[in-house]
Input
Amino acid sequence: MSDATTTPLAPWIAAQRSTLLGQRGHAWLLQGPSGLGQYALGLEMVRAWLCDRPTADGACGQCGSCHAIEVRTHADLCVLMPEVQMMALGWPLSEKAQADIDDKKRKASREIRVEAMRDAVEFSQRTSARGRGKAVLVYPAEQMNHITANALLKTLEEPPGDVRFVLASEAAHQLLPTIRSRCLGHTMVWPAEAEMLAWLKGQGIAADAAPAFLRAAGGRPDDALALARSGRSPQAWALLPQAVARGDATALGDWSPAQVIDALQKLCHDLLAASVGAAPRYFAPADLPKPPPLGPLTRWSKALAKAARTADHPFNAGLMLEALVAQARNTLHSRH
Output
């Protein structure tokens, strides 16, 4: 997930921004799989809505409003995210939420809290401070639980005069149908491969590494950039399937449990594809071991999905890594 203020805007995001700014609407739902720039596009829209000197191509980038968004202090912008993402992207939490986390009364939340939504509803009813209206950015919108979503619903149905909403989602099917029906929908554009590779090279990714990172990210440009900046190498990614088949956990040694599970799910996906004659998506065909039968692969896929639900709170990360690699090795050597 890259911040639109630190990474130059991808051309396909700029094109979508221009298209959306040419249309009227008080609530937008940006939808599509992860890694296609929902957050960047949502932020571009609210920047343009609040800008003192907006153009058809978005915010001017120079005015007081643009600066206030850059430094995360705009009085007419409310950003709703899980607290862990707010903190990662530099958005301030409410004083009470920050105090509770600082005092270790609770951990930063991984979903959008209903208290934050109630603050947003109150914000939407206040008068605009800068006179350009107000904006609420919700990302990832699927991280609202039903109580939080219902708190937003009435305001979406009957918005106060000068407030506009943009909900950005990587799993729009998880949103309440009533939320989806109150928004104008926009499906994120999946860019052409040549365009994505040119953009990745423009971010300083080596020309020979960019295709490997893009493949490892399943063709999703934002995810590919994040992968490239994480310190991973294309060579290490290519060697991963055979290392796992040998039961070599050192290939995943410095990865978090969530990253390990994600990598193993990608390997499992490609082996399932290969076993039914389809093309792999995340690894080159030559890097894959011989697929085991469908039965063990299917069981492994379900086990990984279950492990993913507790990946953020492992009892012991080292033991979990060993168990995951042993499970993978056993699956890959299974013959029935």
User: Anything to note?
Assistant: Confidence is low (pLDDT under 50) at residues 1-5. Strands lie at 27-31, 77-80, 134-138, 163-169, 184-187.
